[in-house]
Structures are given as structure tokens and as C-alpha cells.
């Protein structure tokens, strides 16, 4: 894995490779942006490039140092992630102990902290002291979806490296070339910010199942028969799909948006590409304003879910709202 293998994120790659070429690597970086947009892959590649004995501004992937990183056993690289719900002060103390030993081959020691915004206040204050007074030459890579959630003093001591959600069309081409089903890929790239996240959900059996259920519920809700609520009870809440309601609501949002795409003659933008004929035949069943209202309702129900409102009640509210001419 080298910088050339990282899809997109040209700004981040250029910033890091310029630092390597100029021998001006900062002691701390903050990789911020949507979860799964390639931050961890880039962090590991940057660490490899710092250790690599063959290349100046990238990782060769062949030398002993690169291979150690690939195998997860490089003594000068430490990965930190939340222990349960948070990153705790004991984890920072363990890091300080590890960094009290000399590095191999005069490498800087590197640590990558995933979900850095989940540090407890104690852990963050301990890390701040460590950033200011490392016991050995060190490079910190903090990964956070929301960098502003970190202490301002940590932000001020870290170089910002921005990551953005990858272009869906770019991800779609890569994933289809890898052999994933086109209809599932088109849906996944509109639900995830990066290739790793897309692959993760595409490899889950429930993803295709939940997509099929959304299609069935979306179609049944148009006929106002009330059968959609029965289907939801049987196919969602009596199965493991009930654990993935957040994705289900997001898919509904995309389904309603597809109806609007057809109304405006944008069939090439459809997410549910294998349903183009059905969507074309039913998009006129509601006005654009009503489809927009359904999108808003799906977003509202999804928000309630995140505030721990009962999932079954949230989905039933959506389905009942779709059963009338205007959402409830």
C-alpha cells in the first residue's frame, strides 16, 4: 500500500508527501473528516513512508520496515482506539511507557489514535502534556470525525489534514471493477463516505436484504393498503434487520429522491438503478412537494431513532405517513 493506492484525498496526500520531501514532518497531525473516508489507510501509509528505507516521500511496500507495518508488528508504531466508549487516561499512560524506550533504526516513534474525539478529559489533558514534551522523537496522527470536539490546545498543536467524502461516481467505478454487484454498489456509495466503509457494508448479508425490504415497503406504502406495517413487523422487527434501522431510513430517503429525479428527467442520477421502470411509472403518484415531505419525514424519524425513540414506532410513523396523500 502506497499513497498511489489511496483513492482521492489529493490535498491530504500532497500535504503529507511535501512534508516528507522537505524533511519537515510535524510532531502532530489531525486527520479530520467523515468517518471511513480513508483516514486510517492514509495514516498507516504515512507511517510506512516515515519508516521506509527505500523511498523519500512514499512507502515502497517491500523493505523490512514497510513489511513490519503491513504485518502489524512494527515496534515503533502504536495504534490506539477507544476502550469501550472512550479513550482512557490509562491508555495514554501506556503510550508514554512505550515511548520511553528508544526506537529502532533511529526512526521517530509514531502513534495513530482512531476516534480521538472520544478521549476523556483526563486522557486529553495527559495527551496534551505528552504532545508538548515527548520523551523521544515522535509523530502523532489523531483521527477524528469532528476535529473541533478536541481540546483547543490540542488543535493548536496539530497540523490539520482535511479529508472529504469521496465522490460517489469515483467509488462506484472502483467497487464495480472489484466485482461487487452494480445495484448494491450504487446504493452503498450514497450511504458511506469512503471505499472501506462501502466494502464493509457490501460484504454484509443484511445489506442486500434491507435494500429489498425498503423496495417492498416503498412499493406497498404507495397503495395505502396498510400491508407495509405488517411487512415491517415480519421482515424487520423479527429479524436482525432491526439492528440497522439507521441505514433503512437513509435508503428510504434515497428512494423518495429517486422519484424526484424521474420527475425532473434525471434518470441517470437514480440510486435504485434496477428499479428504473417501476420508479418511472410511479413517480407521478405524488407531487414533488409530497416526495420532499416524505424525505423530511424519513429524516425526522431517523433523528428520533438517534435520540433513542423506539425503532418500531419510528418506522411505523414513517409508513403511516406514506399511506396518505400527505405525510402525518
UniProtKB/TrEMBL annotation:
Q: Any idea which GO molecular function terms this record carries?
A: 3'-5' exonuclease activity; DNA binding; DNA-directed DNA polymerase activity
Q: Which UniProt keywords apply?
A: DNA replication, DNA-directed DNA polymerase, Nucleotidyltransferase, Transferase
Q: Name one GO biological process term.
A: DNA-templated DNA replication
Give EC number(s), comma-separated. 2.7.7.7
Question: What are the record's GO terms for cellular component?
Answer: DNA polymerase III complex
**Keyword Metal-binding among UniProt keywords:** no
Domain DNA polymerase III delta subunit C-terminal per the UniProt entry, residue ranges = 247-321
Q: Which reaction does it catalyse?
A: DNA(n) + a 2'-deoxyribonucleoside 5'-triphosphate = DNA(n+1) + diphosphate
NCBIfam families from the xrefs? holB
Q: What name goes with this protein?
A: DNA polymerase III subunit delta'
What organism does the UniProt record list as the source? Answer: Paenibacillus solani
What taxonomic ancestry is recorded?
Bacteria, Bacillati, Bacillota, Bacilli, Bacillales
Amino acid at each position: 500500500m502506497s499513497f498511489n493506492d489511496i483513492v482521492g484525498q489529493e490535498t491530504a496526500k500532497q500535504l503529507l508527501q511535501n512534508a516528507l520531501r522537505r524533511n519537515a514532518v510535524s510532531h502532530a497531525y489531525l486527520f479530520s473528516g467523515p468517518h471511513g473516508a480513508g483516514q486510517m489507510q492514509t495514516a498507516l501509509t504515512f507511517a510506512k513512508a516515515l519508516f521506509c528505507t527505500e523511498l523519500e516521500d512514499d512507502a515502497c511496500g517491500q523493505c523490512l520496515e514497510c513489511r513490519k507495518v503491513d504485518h502489524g508488528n512494527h515496534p515503533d508504531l502504536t495504534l490506539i482506539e477507544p476502550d469501550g466508549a472512550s479513550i482512557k487516561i490509562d491508555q495514554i499512560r501506556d503510550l508514554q511507557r512505550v515511548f520511553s524506550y528508544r526506537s529502532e533504526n533511529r526512526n521517530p516513534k509514531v502513534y495513530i489514535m482512531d476516534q480521538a474525539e472520544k478521549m476523556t478529559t483526563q486522557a486529553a489533558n495527559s495527551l496534551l502534556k505528552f504532545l508538548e514534551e515527548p520523551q523521544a522523537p515522535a509523530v502523532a496522527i489523531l483521527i477524528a470525525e469532528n476535529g473541533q470536539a478536541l481540546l483547543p490546545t490540542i488543535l493548536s498543536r496539530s497540523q490539520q489534514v482535511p479529508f472529504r467524502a469521496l465522490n460517489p461516481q469515483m467509488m462506484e467505478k472502483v467497487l464495480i471493477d472489484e466485482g461487487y454487484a452494480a445495484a448494491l454498489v450504487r446504493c452503498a456509495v450514497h450511504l458511506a463516505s469512503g471505499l472501506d466503509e462501502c466494502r464493509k457494508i457490501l460484504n454484509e448479508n443484511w445489506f442486500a436484504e434491507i435494500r429489498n425490504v425498503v423496495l417492498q415497503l416503498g412499493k406497498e406504502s404507495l397503495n395505502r393498503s396498510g400491508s407495509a406495517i405488517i411487512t415491517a413487523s415480519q421482515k424487520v422487527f423479527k429479524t436482525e434487520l432491526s439492528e440497522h434501522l439507521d441505514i433503512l431510513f437513509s435508503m428510504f430517503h434515497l428512494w423518495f429522491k429517486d422519484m424526484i429525479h424521474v420527475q425532473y428527467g434525471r434518470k441517470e442520477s437514480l440510486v435504485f438503478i434496477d428499479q428504473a421502470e417501476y420508479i418511472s411509472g410511479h413517480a407521478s403518484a405524488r407531487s414533488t412537494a409530497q416526495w420532499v415531505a416524505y424525505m423530511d419525514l424519513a429524516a425526522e424519524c431517523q433523528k428520533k431513532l438517534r435520540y433513542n425513540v423506539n425503532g418500531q414506532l419510528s418506522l411505523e410513523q414513517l409508513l403511516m405517513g406514506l399511506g396518505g396523500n400527505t405525510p402525518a
